[in-house]
């Protein structure tokens, strides 16, 4: 089944999927915050132009998911805006994206990946823990919905 999932980098024509994927889960579970509007308003400008990365998961050549890596400092990036279309959930796409993200982080010689989430997203938290992310106690976030910060040391 793995051979059906391919991870590809951001292109302008995929930008609408980045926006749609993220707005779908934000609206379902929370709300679209001003910081989300900024990020989703122009993903290339917010992520790519600031040394960040955006990737898409294709399932049988159809866009199924996405995630971004935001540069925080030279060797620290944030895993951000990870989402899978509902009709593709349960097909291990989140696993594949997270594995790819960790490979990228290693290739980029990053020291650490961080992420902010909410414990209501139980499947996501489980996935992060499965791949070695640990909870960080005491943090501030620009996301109102964030009630958990996690990190993994890469190199």
What spatial order of strands do you see in the largest sheet? 1-2-3-4-5-7-6
Task: Tell me about the largest β-sheet.
Answer: 7 strands, mixed
Large-scale geometry: globular
Average the pLDDT over all residues and give the rounded result: 95
Query: Which consecutive residue ranges, at least 5 long each, have pLDDT under 50?
Result: none
User: Quick one: how many beta strands?
Assistant: 7
Question: Roughly how many Å apart are the termini?
Answer: 30 Å
Number of helices: 5
Structural class: alpha+beta
- Could you tell me the radius of gyration in angstroms? 14 Å
Strand proportion: 25-35%
Helix content: 25-40%
H/E element sequence:
EHHHEEEHEHEE
Structural notes for this entry:
This protein is of the alpha+beta class and 155 residues long. It contains 5 helices and 7 strands. A 7-stranded mixed sheet has the order 1-2-3-4-5-7-6. A hairpin with a 2-residue loop joins strand 2 (53-59) and strand 3. The longest helix has 15 residues, at 15-29. It starts with a strand and ends with a strand.
Kindly summarize this structure in a few lines.
This protein is of the alpha+beta class and 155 residues long.
